[in-house]
Amino acid sequence: MRYGTDLRHPVRMPFRRCRHRARVGDAAANHPLFPEVTASDLRRGGRLGSTRQKRALAAGMLVLAGALPSCGGPADPSERTAEAEASAREMADRIVTDLRAPTVVRTRTADDIGRTLAARSEASLVAVSGVDTAHPDGVTAVLLVTGSGTDGAWLEPEWITEDFCFALRFTATSVASPRLVPCPSPTVRPTFPPAPEPKVPSLDELRAALATSTPDEPAVRAALARLPLDPTVRVDVAARDAVVGVALRHPAGGTGGYGCLFGRVRAGAVEMWRPSEVQLVPGELACRATESLAGYGRQPPG
Question: By C-alpha distance, which of 296, 263, 293, 264 is closest to 280?
């Protein structure tokens, strides 16, 4: 598709170039509504002071408007589909970028991956194959993504939508780039059993693990690494003024919520506490080590 550009207002306009360039002035001069108008009137510079010149300008605009359909016309179907496919692929690329975050790459089973993808609103999960990412073939998921494109009309373009399917292959260490595949027929969204609650250490277990640690960040990280933590538990550690803050965030409730364990390690003392549920609602505590350093969440809200 070629594009025309108005030099005064550089706007991208999807229309094809005319094969025959008619002179608007000549066409207007022969227009039956304005027999007194000459082509030279339209080509002459200067101000449009006379009535005849103003009529000439109006006639030229009228003829030009009538000529536009012959220059525009609908886009080629293949161009329209390519534009919609590019839109869908861009969305699939963004999804893969999100899925390459470490917390998602550590997902192991096909059910875990399926639950993660089924929760996304910008695409529909239509198929999952494989057992887990430990297998050489990994896990393959197919997402249905809707792309959009214009029909190519100039004055009143209409947007069209088309569905495309992309295969995403998960391994133990990465997520492959999306690959365009035929959509399954019929399209049925798979279902998955509820996610099991992750194994989270108790406050006493954490206190015992950190009791022998010195109040420096590397030592605290090493002590936490020796615990059999579930892969879904996010560990955050930060140090300030000879005090080390610890935060363990884990999934809870199976609805996207999370639980949190806070701790502070200082010379000769280890503090551990659990913020209340109301303190973990969106907009409140995010379960970060900097929050534990500040002592947030130690007391329930009054």
Answer: 296
